[in-house]
Amino acid sequence: MTTAVPDITSRNPADPADVLLRIPAPGAFAAADAVERARAAQPGWLLAGASARSAALGAVAAALDGAADELAALAVREVGKPLAEARAEVARTVAIWRYYAQAPFETTGAVHEPAAGPGLLLTRRRPHGVAGLITPWNFPFAIPSWKAAPALAVGNTVVLKPAPEATACAQRLAEIVQQAVPPAVFTVLPGGATEGNALVSAADVVSFTGSTPVGRAVAGAATARGIPVQAEMGGLNAALVLPDADIEHAAGNIAAAIAGYAGQKCTATSRVVAVGAALDPLREALSEALRAVAVGDPADAATVCGPLIHEGARDQVADAWRGLPTLAGGVVPERPGWYVAPTLVEKVSPGHRLLREEVFGPVAALLPADDLAHAVRITNSVPYGLVTSVHTADLNTALRGLDALDTGMIRLNAPSTGVDFHLPFGGSKASSHGPREQGRAALEFYTSARTYTLAPAGTAA
Q: Is the pTM of this model over 0.90?
């Protein structure tokens, strides 16, 4: 009796009848084979030298830039990303490859004097080998790139296992990268949990972005093998609004962070903490700002909030606000595709799922706080700690509270969403595991430090 091989199916969230691809899942043996081919290719990629690696990454950036319109349209169609955001993601992806194209020329160590006697002590960073990357669907070009580009820059080879919902984007990215690098240096492995588990079991270093339960399993499996691992997981991010803030400006930023890309970002705002007298004006301004958000076809350049990634996601979001007082939204539009209206609720009890779980949709809870210290306690009360935005006109007040926040990133008078790819990215608690991503932190993660002792021949031990 044979077992049917599951299919990988990718649909357009705005038009579920539009199927981008349906292919058989390759299975665990294909994952192991991809890693072995990448491992065989890795020494040649490293020994080709810094100039070759730099030129290859620069060529990838140029090719991505040349295909920008096509790639943005593909992201719109496959993952429902609004066109303006899709274009911005592609531009960021180009910038990421350009940034890391200079990394092969960075210093890889240092020279030290020995404690006693002649000789030299050297430290040197070397690549791990094969980087296994497991990435989500919500940033189908940027997240694979900010993992793959630094890994390649320092001499690793890469096997990328994308989310099934973003398979077409990953395959197109691979076509572009593979034009610039030798065979088996960059491989896309389509699939789901079977392929992902096999990749974690075979790679030499693992980087994961996705849900917290899966991330914890990945981190546990990699740690058990004794290989480096990082996992970027969920968020339950808060926006703190103090009474002296520019309320209209804050409301605009927060509405964008709640509803942009239908809230399908780990950095999206899902809790809004209004301090003291800020509550009433913020309630009105934020409700109005959310009602004004353009919801519709992601191919329309004016759209801010497009569809959820699939039907189950839409139903989960709609279920999250059920029974709560609604200030804005709270409806599921009657139209093709998996849409919900951007939603703001209040009077949410402390044990409610909106204050415990990442719903991953355009819904947020408005919460009152007596003062800044109370707002910080509310912010820190959840299992996650990725990013917090703070809105105030008084920098001194903000600084008194910022260090008490247990989130990895803090954004002042700016949306919680937004990533500076040349700086470390990551959170605390259930949001992140292991070293930071992006910037120079990524170059360190994808290499290991070695210490060399160079003593003159004949030196006594």
A: yes
